[in-house]
Amino acid sequence: MIKQKRLTKINLYDKFNAAFVSLITPEMKALNKIRKQNSYSKQPTLERPFDMPLEFISINGVQIRMAKSIIDTQNKETIVLLSAFPHTILAYSPIWEVLKKEYNLYTYDLPGFGASETKAEYMSFTFQADFLNSFLSHFDIENSHLVAPDVGMATALSYVINHKNKIKSLMIGDGPAALPTSEPSIMKKMVYSSFWRIMFVIAGSGALIESAKNLGNVRYVPNKYEISDYKKSHNGKVANCMKWFKKYPEALKDIDKNLKNIQIPTKIFWGEHEAILHKENGVNLNKRMPNSELEIFENCGHFVYQDDYPRFIRLIQTWVEKHK
After folding, report:
1. Residue 4 is assigned to a structural domain of this protein
2. CATH number of the domain that residue 133 is part of
3. What digits encode the pLDDT tens for the residues 304-323?
4. Tens digit of pLDDT for each residue in 56-77?
5. Residues 297, 302, 305, 310: is their CA dihedral positive or negative?
């Protein structure tokens, strides 16, 4: 793992701005009720992340941070995990620790997100899909399984729609896909309001990370190493990240009209207490995709791969074994 010489913390400015976001978010009352039932505390779920072989590489002139673990390309299945926003691939460490013993694994921070390089032209569904195609080609990855929550979900769907591929299965959730969308207040602010996008840029990466924790987790408590990596990785990138959300409504139309054509076996996962994109989006997507199954994660928020990571690991194992 790439070691951080000095941890970046959530400061008072970050907490103040995140508290204001919580104050104007109607969904917070229900989220806090669930957290109380879960005895949610400040004590991190894991004291520190498990080791991941993080590295920086350049593909087609785009520098990304990634990790890979190869055990047997001939006899073991290959899984590619795409990052969520505003997390980084470090969020996958407990999943990685288990799956690396059974499968070949690849993961990377999407260009413009996490610790990967950012440019305005990276912030579109189309660019992300094209880059995923380049990533798979660069490592000669074929017949793989894609795990793609949040912004990674849009990338995975755009990729299988617009590129010839040999993807065996998809595991997607808590992200954009089918119209009409059911969007809680925070998503509406980022997508439809230039004023609020500017406010998020001014607040900075720390407020973004703290707000994401408040809105996205009802069980899992990130540790200081995760928080530091998320904040440091997105420092100076929030403005470009907001460009992705500005383009979201128009980009979504291309995915929506092609959902009926996706025949790849697809497991859709969604958090029961979702405050970024309502679980009705998962139900709608399941109805629209002809070869899909829906799994709702009870007692989980937006970041289901953290809130119930043992169950998420089992989901991946079961689905991959079924479709290998």
Report:
1. no
2. 3.40.50.1820
3. 999 999 999 999 999 999 99
4. 999 999 999 999 999 999 999 9
5. negative
